[in-house]
Amino acid sequence: MLKHTLAGRGKTGPWPWFTAVWLTIAAAAQTVPPAPPTVPNCPPAPTGYDPALWQRAWTLHHDAVVVDTHIDTTSLVLDRNLDMGLRQTTGHVDLPRAAQGGLDAVFYSIYVDARFHGDEAPLFAKPPRTVNDDWPRPAAPGPANGSARRALAMIDGLCRTAAQHPERMQLCSSVAELRAAVAAGKHAALMGIEGGHAIEGDLGLLRQFARLGVRYMTLTHSNHNEFADSCAPAEPRWGGLNRLGVKVVREMNRLGMMVDVSHVSDATFADALQASRAPVICSHSSMRALCGHRRNITDAMLRALAAQGGVVMINYNCGFLDDDYAVRASATRATRQIEEKAARAKFPADSNELQTALRALDHRFPPVARPPLQRLVEHVWHALTIGGEDHVGLGSDFDGVPCVPEGMDDATFLPRLTYELLARGATETTVRKVLGENLLRVFTAVEATAMRLADEPPARHGDDDRERRH
Ligand SMILES: [Zn+2]
Fold first, then answer.
1. CA 72–ligand 1 middle distance (angstroms)
2. Residues 6+ apart with CB under 8 A from 297
3. Residue 19 has what pLDDT?
4. Which of 44, 50, 72, 42 is nearest to 411 (CA)?
5. What is the 53 CA–ligand 1 centroid distance (Å)?
6. 41 phi, psi to nearest 5 deg
7. Helical H runs in 15-94?
8. CA dihedral in degrees (407, 412, 417, 418; nearest 10)?
9. How far is the CA of 317 from the centre of ligand 1 (A)?
10. Which end of the chain is more exposed for a tag (fewer CB within 10 A), N or C?
């Protein structure tokens, strides 16, 4: 309307050139309202599902903002040249399957495996006093540290993917960008670092990753690092967070990065909650009350997380959902590995004999039966019961785990989770919270904390960084 009226004036006005320029600017400034996302046609109800409830679940699922805080497709992009634009027949996530499953926004894991963790600290410990002095040479330099480079390569892989598919995928680094991308019908891609060793103990590198758009960091992976203990090694290194670890958490608050306590030791979990000035997330962990793996959190930990305003995002990994599966899979894997090793020692590589022996092992050790989707739903339900409806979400670990439940085979199966929650009596409001709104609330609170801390100076390193606190 505005454009039409001015165009009429322009035709008769004294400065048509001026009006034309003004019109161009005005047209560019007008915001085009995004087209509402369309709900794909509902497929027939799966066997045993109530058709009316399935239709309701499908519509709700595709209308809600569905967020997953941990998916490892980035590793496949980087290491196996996966094109996310094409529907794959293996793995769990690509753009066609995400769209079909109503998976709107994903924090792709900037995963740094523990083998990249080295220690270059001796090289950087004591810089020269003046620019004319030589750097002191350590007696024996530590092993090379490739952690940050690996994280940067992961980020590059995701950025290349987004640039390859601009019509379907949008890199985002804020709640506003995420919601705008989803409203425009695009897949919102965000970044979370997995493994705090990615920053190589350097607060400057942490800030640099924040500048690149990384919006959460898992304080550890399966290894202790320069500032925090992991849940995996039997012996603690620092007994939780050391002094640098507290600075890292507080600096993440200042930078607007969510502090992620999946993978950390119970002591690190408690320290992180105490140190953080914003709600904390558990990006991909399940319930230890239902499966005893140390990657999961106890009811007491969930209550503490909820009391602080945080959210646990339930992991779909069979081994974190079901103790029985974990025991059977582990026993089968161990026996198979011993026999495979013997076969490889006995027969030459590439020989027909070896291939025959491996096929025989495949036959003797078929895949262990997977737990059903209901087992995953039980974890979500337990978390809702203990933590409350405001503190539960989804962090699948798709493309990062060897086994997901039967009935949650890939991203296209996600609407079934919505169905199961409704079938158990969850309200539509609760379901929307679990699917994404709880995580977006925490992300918003983390952004607000960063705004509040805008005048705080960047954290600095000190001589006591590598001291224990306990
Ligand atoms: Zn993980």
1. 9
2. 269, 282, 285, 286, 287, 288, 305, 312
3. 53
4. 72
5. 34
6. -55, 135
7. 16-29, 51-63, 73-80
8. -150
9. 10
10. N
Q: How far, in Å, from the CA of 194 to the mean position of ligand 1? A: 7
User: Domain check: are 207 and 355 in the same one?
Assistant: no
Same domain, 228 and 352: no
What would the pLDDT profile of 179-208 be if each residue is shown by its tens digit?
999 999 999 999 999 999 999 999 999 999
For residue 355, how far is its CA from the centre of ligand 1 (angstroms)?
33
> How many A from CA of 113 to the centre of ligand 1?
10
Structure tokens at 166: 């601009």
CA of residue 405 to ligand 1 center, whole Å? 17
Separation of 237 CA from ligand 1 center, angstroms?
20
| Beta strands, E only, 6-164 | 67-71, 105-111
**In terms of DSSP bridges, do strands 311-314 and 281-282 run parallel, antiparallel, or are they unpaired?**
parallel
Check residues 470 and 73 and name the one with the higher pLDDT: 73
Phi, psi of 246 (to 5 degrees): -65, -40
Contact 410, 103 (CB under 8 A): no
Q: CA 467, CA 470: separation in Å to the nearest integer?
A: 9
Percent of the chain at pLDDT > 70 equals 91
- In which domain, by residue range, is 299 found? 62-322+372-452
Taking the model in full, what pTM does it have?
Answer: 0.87
Contact 242, 277 (CB under 8 A): no
The answer on 347 and 245 residing in a single domain is no
If you measure from the C-alpha of residue 41 to the centroid of ligand 1, how many angstroms do you get, rounded to a whole number? Answer: 34
Instruction: Please state the domain count of the chain.
Output: 2
**Residue 253 sits in the same domain as residue 393:** yes
DSSP class of 228: B
